[in-house]
Amino acid sequence: MWWSNAVIYQVYVRSFQDSDGDGVGDLPGATRRLEHVAELGASAVWLSPIYPSPNADYGYDVTDFQAVEPTFGTLADLDRLIARAHELGLRVILDFVPCHTSIEHRWFRAHPEYYVWSDTVPNNWRAAFGGGAWGHDPVTGRYFLHSFFPEQADLDWHEPEVRRRIAEALAFWVARGVDGFRLDALDRIMKDERLRDDPPATEPPPFPMTPEDAKLDHVHSRNAPDVGVALQAIRAAVGSAFLVGEVYLRTSEMGPYLEALDEVFSFDAMHSGPDARRLAKAIAAGVARGQTGWVLSNHDFSRLPTRAGPGNARACVMLLLFLPGPVFMFQGDELGMGDAVPAGEPLDRNARDGFRMPMRWDTSEHAGFSSTTPWLRSDGSQVPAAVEQSADPGSMLSLVKRALTLRASLGQDRRDARVIESPPDTVVVARGDRLAAINLGDEPRPAPVAGTRLVLEARPGDGGDLSVIPPHGGWIATAAS
Ligand code: GLC
Fold first, then answer.
1. How much of the chain exceeds pLDDT 90, in percent?
2. Do 198 and 258 fall into the same domain?
3. Alpha-carbon distance 289 to 431, whole Å?
4. Alpha-carbon gap, residue 393 to 476, rounded angstroms
5. Sign of the four-CA dihedral 313, 316, 322, 325
6. HEC string for 49-76
7. What CATH code is carried by the domain that includes residue 469?
């Protein structure tokens, strides 16, 4: 399968490239920058939602599943983007949002039966971004379910017409040449039909969530046992197109999702922070499960250099790009972008602006992103721009390119990776006769297996002694088996 070893590059369209001088990225701009993605050695682009949206949640509140947001361009612009991507050997994946629509979607009034309603607040479910999950509709006086912002009403996937309408939308994009979909918020797509209360949590949540949400065990508000009903409808609509699910659960809980999807993201690995033990366990679990992809960063959480600690970004990038299974990188990961401090009023109500800053292409006033002040600006220090990094063999961009060249030589075997027991703060993974060893701590550590010939180093000099894993660094080497 083309995605088995793919590097899938997430384009956050608003922040990638502006072409018409309004300070907001768009599809013609993105098309122009596809060469950058192809030159990196990536296999595909994933476009963050491109559908018309009032932007309560920047594109994840959709008002029409079969159209393009006018600020981003037209359907013809998307056709041109797809054609150019294919010409460059890149596949195109759309972000699709099956769990909810904007409350401004025509369906919300014309087809209330597509949504989940109750005459009173029926239970204790919480919304992922805070507050209760039931919104009061002043028009009908009833309450509708919203798993995210109150502007995002949950669709009722038990309703056959919902399945039919979404299937129609997915087929529309497949017919336009799209190669696959990243499916948003799938653990929220099916919930208890009887709307029973979530019981109190008995253990801390595995991943970040609001303190209110963390108090509950989400056995009814999400991850319902009949999720296959929704997923099979989606699979039937797209045929053999690639499907990766955003399922905010542990790797061990992905079984029912993977019956219909090709891949899921490893949130276990993404949320391991600088904890090498956790990262090693997450990698072992993902490799054993199969169908698990790795995420450098995305538009929802702290970027990799911030999550892993600034000194550890290069080592983590090198290791993640070594793993079998698809790797998802977020625009700017190749430049080492960490979280930024946004300037001006916050835009995203869930405080994610700092992860979504415009690309830094060059050293001009607006970094080559736009001819005018961008929609999102940062206060903080900036990474060197792409043009500067291209010319610097020691840059993050150069490391990423080398890691991707190496990756292409590693082959398709998804089961060939083994996590090797290693000293504290370190993660060591073998694939065939290659060994990747990184150290996220402050002390040098002995390598459990010494490398014999250096293949790649996280920082210049890291591979000087292949019996040692240097602090905040690492190497990939061949090793005697
Ligand atoms: C997913 C998206 C996130 C969005 C949410 C609701 O988690 O990645 O950006 O806010 O779903 O659609």
1. 97
2. yes
3. 16
4. 17
5. negative
6. CCCCCCCCCCCCCCCCCCCCCCCCCCHH
7. 2.60.40
Write the single-letter amino acid at 480.
A
> Which residues does ligand 1 sit against, CB inside 6 Å?
57, 60, 97, 148, 184-185, 246, 299-300
* One domain, residues 386 and 455: no
pTM over the 0.85 mark: yes
Q: Tokens at residue 97, please?
A: 């949002």
Q: Does residue 277 have a pLDDT over 80? A: yes
pLDDT tens track for 47-67: 999 999 999 999 999 999 999
274: in domain = yes
Please tell me the distance from the alpha carbon of residue 17 to that of residue 239, in angstroms, as a whole number.
Answer: 32
Given 26, 77, 192, 246, the catalytic residue:
246
In angstroms, what is the span from residue 25 Cα to ligand 1's centroid? 19
pLDDT in tens, 256-273: 999 999 999 999 999 999
Ligand 1 atom at minimum distance from 61 CA: 12
Look at residue 412 in the predicted model and tell me its pLDDT.
82
For this structure, is 246 an active site residue? Answer: yes
63 is a domain residue: yes
In this prediction, residue 363 has a pLDDT band, given cuts at 50, 70 and 90, of very high
334 classed as catalytic: no
- Strand 434-439 and strand 473-479: the pairing is antiparallel
pLDDT in tens, 409-421: 998 888 889 999 9
Q: Whose CA is nearest to atom 3 of ligand 1?
A: 300
| Shared-domain flag, residues 166 and 312 | yes
Quick: pLDDT tens for 365-380.
999 999 999 999 988 7
Predicted confidence band of residue 341 (pLDDT cuts 50, 70, 90): very high
Assigned domain for 25 exists: yes
347 and 433 in a single domain? The answer is no
Domain boundary among 379, 408, 437: 408
Ligand 1 atom with the smallest distance to the CA of 60 is 12
Give the tokens for residue 104.
Answer: 């401004």
* Ligand 1 centroid, distance to 60 Cα (angstroms): 6
Work out which ligand 1 atom sits closest to the CA atom of 248. Answer: 7
Q: Which domain holds residue 345?
A: 2-101+156-408
Mutate which of 47, 57, 348 to test ligand 1's pocket (most atoms within 8 Å of Cβ)? 57
CA distances from 394 to 109, 314, 386, 397 (A): 56, 11, 13, 8
Q: Total structural domains in the chain?
A: 2
Q: Which of 18, 57, 184, 348 is catalytic?
A: 184
Specify the pLDDT at position 199.
98
| Residue in the structure block whose two tokens are 């309004």 | 22
Q: Which of 11, 12, 47, 60 to mutate to test the pocket of ligand 1 (most atoms within 8 A of CB)?
A: 60
- Averaged over 373-394, what is the pLDDT? 94
Tell me the CA–centroid distance for residue 129 and ligand 1, in Å: 10
Taking alpha carbons only, the member of 354, 355, 350 closest to residue 342 is 354
